[in-house]
Design a protein that fits this description.
This protein is α+β, with helices and mostly antiparallel strands. It is built from 17 helices and ten strands. The chain has a four-stranded antiparallel beta sheet with strand order 5-10-9-7. α4 packs antiparallel against α5 and α9 packs parallel to α14. The chain is elongated and about 150 Å long.
C-alpha cells in the first residue's frame, strides 16, 4: 500500500510541473515570437512591359527558403515535357528503322515469304536503258562496212528492230586491234606443217587448269552452291563434279567471263572474218534477239573474243537451245551461278549424257603395238581389239562393247586412257581430247577434296598450248 501511494504522489507532482511550464510560455510577450517578413525583389534590367513576379522569402532564425513563382514552374515543366516527347519520338523512329536483334529473324522470315509469294525480280546490272536513242545514219568504226548495213536491214525486216536503234548500237560498237587480229586469224588459218609434236604437251595443258588455286576456288564454289548442284544432278542425271569441271575450265568459276564486250567481239568476227563471217553474224543475230527478250543492254555484257557469254560461256544460239532458268526467277541469266549450273547439266543431257555412265578410266599397255591404232575422242575400238594390242584396264567401270583410245603425251611418256560414251559428250562442249580430259580430272580432284580424301598430284605450271587446243568456245 505504501508503494502505490508513493507512485501516485510522484505522478501528481510531475503533472503539476508540466502545467506550470505551459502557463509560463503563454504569458511571454508577443514581440519575442518570430514573424515572417516579405521582401520584393525587382528585376531592374527587365523590360518595362514585362511582368515582374515577386519572390517570397521566408526568414527563420537559421535559414532562408526561396519559393519560385507558380507561373515559372509551369513553364519549365512544359519545356521538360516537350523535350521528353521529342526524345521518345526519335527513339521510336530508330527502333522502327532498325529492328531489335530478337526481331531480325522474324523480319527475315517475312521477307523470304514475300519473295516466295511474288516472282523474284531479275538481279542483273545488264539491263537495257528505258529510252532508246535514234540515229538517222550509221556512224563509228562500221559506218563504211557494207556487211553491217546489210545486217541492219535484215534485223529490221526479219525481227522488227527499229533501224534508228540499230544505228545507235553499231555506231557505238568498237573494232579494237585485238579483236581485228583474232578475226583475221580465224578467217586465215595457218597451214599445218607435219611436225612431230613436242613431248609433254598434255602435261603443259593440264597444268593450266589443275592448280591448287583453281581447285580451291572450285571447292568454295561447290560449297556456296551445293543446293543448286544437287538439284541439277537429281534433275538431269549429270554428276556435280562434271558441272564444276566445265565452269572451272571455262571461267575459273566466274573469275574471267571475258574482257571484251559481246557486241564488239561478235561484230568483229562477223563483219571482218572472211571464212566464218556468216556463222558469227547468226550468233550476233541471236545475241540481239536474246537481249531484247531478257531486257539486256547489248552494249554492256562482256564475253570472250569469240562472243561466248556467262559463267558457262554459251554462244548466243546455245542460250536459246540449252539455257534454263534453274533458280526459277523468271529469266535466264548465265552470269548467276544457279542458271549456269542448270544450263551446263541440261546441255549434257540434251547431248546424250548417260546417267551413271563411266567417263574415262586409266589404261595400261604391255607393248607398243597400240601405236598403230587410231587415238582421240573420235576413235572407237572394241575391247577385244584393244586387248589384242596389249591395252587393258584394271577397272572398266560400265564401259562395254567399244571405247575410244586416248593417248596423252607427258614428259614421262604416253599416258593411255579409255573413254566411254560420256567422255564423247563432254567433247560436244569443246571438240578437244585435252579439253574433255581437263574437265574430267578437275572434277575428280574437287570431288576428292569434297569427300575428304587427299589432294590430287598437280601437274607442271609450264603452259604452252598448241594451236589445235585454242578452238573457239562453244562451237
Amino acid at each position: 500500500m505504501n508503494k502505490r501511494i508513493i507512485l501516485k504522489s510522484a505522478c501528481l507532482i510531475a503533472f503539476s510541473v508540466g502545467l506550470a511550464a505551459c502557463s509560463q510560455r503563454q504569458n511571454e510577450p508577443a514581440e519575442a515570437k518570430t514573424k515572417p517578413t516579405v521582401k520584393y525583389r525587382a528585376n531592374v534590367s527587365a523590360k518595362p512591359n514585362k511582368l515582374i513576379t515577386p519572390k517570397v522569402v521566408v526568414k527563420t532564425e537559421k535559414l532562408v527558403i526561396e519559393k519560385r513563382s507558380p507561373i515559372k514552374v509551369v513553364a519549365q515543366r512544359k519545356v521538360i515535357q516537350k523535350r521528353r516527347v521529342v526524345r521518345r519520338a526519335a527513339v521510336k523512329s530508330r527502333q522502327e528503322a532498325r529492328p531489335r536483334a530478337h526481331n531480325r529473324k522474324v523480319v527475315a522470315r517475312q521477307r523470304a515469304r514475300q519473295q516466295r509469294q511474288q516472282p523474284r525480280q531479275r538481279q542483273n546490272h545488264y539491263r537495257a536503258p528505258v529510252s532508246k536513242a535514234r540515229y538517222a545514219s550509221l556512224q563509228g568504226d562500221y559506218a563504211g562496212n557494207p556487211q553491217t548495213r546489210a545486217f541492219i536491214n535484215m534485223m529490221s525486216a526479219k525481227h522488227g528492230f527499229d533501224r534508228g536503234y540499230l544505228n545507235y548500237l553499231f555506231s557505238n560498237t568498237k573494232s579494237t586491234p585485238f579483236l581485228a587480229r583474232m578475226a583475221y586469224a580465224d578467217g586465215h588459218p595457218k597451214r599445218r606443217v607435219n611436225k612431230k609434236p613436242r613431248k609433254g604437251r598434255w602435261t603443259r595443258y593440264r597444268g593450266n587448269f589443275l592448280t591448287p588455286r583453281t581447285i580451291n576456288k572450285g571447292l568454295a564454289f561447290a560449297r556456296a552452291n551445293r543446293v543448286a548442284l544437287q538439284r541439277a544432278e537429281d534433275k538431269y542425271g549429270v554428276p556435280k563434279e562434271y558441272i564444276l569441271g566445265i565452269i572451272g575450265v571455262e571461267t575459273r568459276y566466274g573469275e574471267n567471263v571475258g574482257k571484251n564486250r559481246a557486241i564488239d567481239a561478235l561484230s568483229a568476227m562477223g563483219f571482218e572474218n572472211a571464212r566464218r563471217g556468216k556463222y558469227f553474224q547468226s550468233e550476233l543475230e541471236a545475241f540481239l534477239v536474246m537481249s531484247r527478250k531478257e531486257g539486256l543492254d547489248p552494249l554492256r555484257p562482256m564475253a570472250s573474243y569469240a562472243g561466248a557469254l556467262g559463267l558457262c560461256q554459251f554462244m548466243p544460239s546455245n542460250i536459246k537451245r540449252y539455257a534454263v532458268d534453274h533458280d526459277r526467277s523468271g529469266t535466264v541469266n548465265l552470269w548467276t551461278p544457279h542458271d549456269a549450273i542448270g544450263s551446263v547439266a541440261n546441255y549434257f543431257k540434251k547431248h546424250g549424257w548417260r546417267t551413271g555412265g563411266t567417263v574415262a578410266v586409266r589404261a595400261n599397255s604391255s607393248s607398243s603395238r597400240y601405236k598403230t591404232l587410231k587415238t582421240g575422242f573420235k576413235s572407237s575400238h572394241s575391247l577385244s581389239r584393244l586387248k589384242s594390242k596389249g591395252v587393258s584396264a584394271r577397272n572398266l567401270g560400265n564401259i562395254s562393247g567399244k571405247a575410244s583410245l586416248l593417248k596423252l603425251s607427258t614428259y614421262g611418256g604416253d599416258e593411255l586412257w579409255l573413254g566411254g560414251h560420256n567422255f564423247y559428250v563432254i567433247t560436244r562442249y569443246n571438240h578437244s581430247t585435252h579439253y574433255a580430259m581437263a574437265v574430267h580430272q578437275l572434277g575428280q580432284a574437287i570431288k576428292a577434296r569434297l569427300g575428304g580424301r587427299g589432294a590430287v598430284r598437280q601437274a607442271s605450271n609450264d603452259i604452252d598450248l598448241h594451236s589445235d587446243d585454242l578452238a573457239l568456245l562453244m562451237k
